Amino acid sequence: MAEIFNSADTAAFKNVWVFCEQRQGKMMSTTFELISEGRKLADELGVELCGILLGDDVDGIAGELGGYGADRVYVYNSPLLKNYTTDAYTKVVVDAVQAIKPEILLFGASNIGRDLAPRCAARLHTGLCADCTHLDVDLNGYVEFLRTGSSLDVDNTNFESKQFDVNTNLKMTRPAFGGHLMATIVCPRFRPAMATVRPGVMKRGAYDEAKAKAVEIVHPVFELSVADVKTEVLDVVKAAKKLVDLIGADYIVSVGRGIAKDVEGGIKLAEELAAELGGVVGSSRAVVDAGWLSADHQVGQTGKTVHPKVYIALGISGAIQHKAGMQDSECIIAVNKNDGAPIFEIADYGICGDLFKVVPELIESVRAAKAAK
Predict the structure, then answer these.
(1) Confidence bin at 165 (pLDDT 50/70/90)
(2) Looking at the domain that runs over 10-228, which CATH code has it been given?
(3) Hey, how many other C-beta atoms are within 10 angstroms of the C-beta on 48?
(4) Between 191 and which of 13, 165, 243, 355 could a Cys-Cys bridge form, CB atoms 3.0 to 4.6 Å apart?
């Protein structure tokens, strides 16, 4: 008789898993970010990090996961898995979890991850924390995160619980109430603890070729038939719409409400500066809400989290929601007329002045520096 799966038997679950998203045989960059983060969590728990990779003849890209920290990769190959379908992927992932029992399962918060993760969580009778921006197991590490990333008085806060072991449960932090608060959620009674993680939030680790060659590739026996799949993908068409690649940009010039007196002129200045730097234009939420730029430009808790080499904030006051999405940039330059703007608290270089006067001078300075090389 087959063993009955019990998500409440938490002691039976072990290891950290990452759903490794690939499309047309190419691994998504978010997967490498999650593998790097999963390595940290697995080390905190003293367990192994495993990837679960679904597709058709995808063994060739499985080794990449070892290069970023995976100890083992479970590979499920089938023509029925070549293109993503909710039915097929859900069945395979759920069957794998029920058979092998990981204690943590992470997904990227992509279109696929946001569709697949809740389906799996419902079938596995466990919880799911969506759109996370921070993950911790170790309590001391979590407290340090709160000390620098929140207004909580951590020195006078009791983190102990009589109901569960705080130091062995995954602490999943995500924006709440439209990004005005950060909530940390735990799933102490059921396993696996599941989370989708916002792309660009976790830093990708260094690639190790030796680990890529040493990773264990496993091909579990699984069942999947045409009868399990209710939909058929006839064709995959990539949209021609060009989106702003904020996450992959080394230089970002963002605009805020400070461009209000001349919106078109402010955006044009930002575009010129970004072009000179070889970067892209970002924005605060206020700019998107006003309809001045599209949502793919938005940086912040409810937008994209970025880690560029240089982040230039033009007319952005620096609300906590915006700072959370860009404060880990290598160099932050802020231009604002208000010398008390919160953005100056995290800026490496601050210019108190009118952006419409300052930015043209910045553009000329960049051009002069490039010409001098």
Answers:
(1) confident
(2) 3.40.50.620
(3) 15
(4) 13
| CATH superfamily, with its number, for domain 251-372 | TPP-binding domain (3.40.50.1220)
Per-domain residue ranges for the chain? 10-228, 251-372
- Can you give the pLDDT at residue 180? 66
Mean pLDDT estimate for the chain: 90
Residue written as tokens 């691994």? 27
Peptide bond into 308 cis (omega under 30): no
H runs (alpha helix) in 280-329: 285-289, 320-323
Helical ranges in the chain per DSSP H = 29-45, 59-67, 86-100, 111-124, 139-149, 209-214, 263-277, 285-289, 320-323, 355-372
User: Do the domains at 10-228 and 251-372 have one common CATH topology?
Assistant: yes
φ/ψ region of 291 (left if φ > 0, alpha if ψ in -120 to 50, else beta) reads: left
Query: Any residues with CB less than 8 A from the CB of 286 and at least 6 apart, and which?
Result: 256, 257
| Residue range 34-74, pLDDT digits in tens | 999 999 999 999 999 999 999 999 999 999 999 999 999 99
CA distances from 332 to 159, 309, 352 (A): 34, 9, 14
- Give the burial class of 248: count Cβ atoms within 10 A of its Cβ; 0-12 exposed, 13-18 middle, 19 or more buried: exposed
- CA atoms in the 13 A half-sphere facing the CB of 170: 33
Residue 9 φ/ψ, nearest 5 degrees: -85, 70
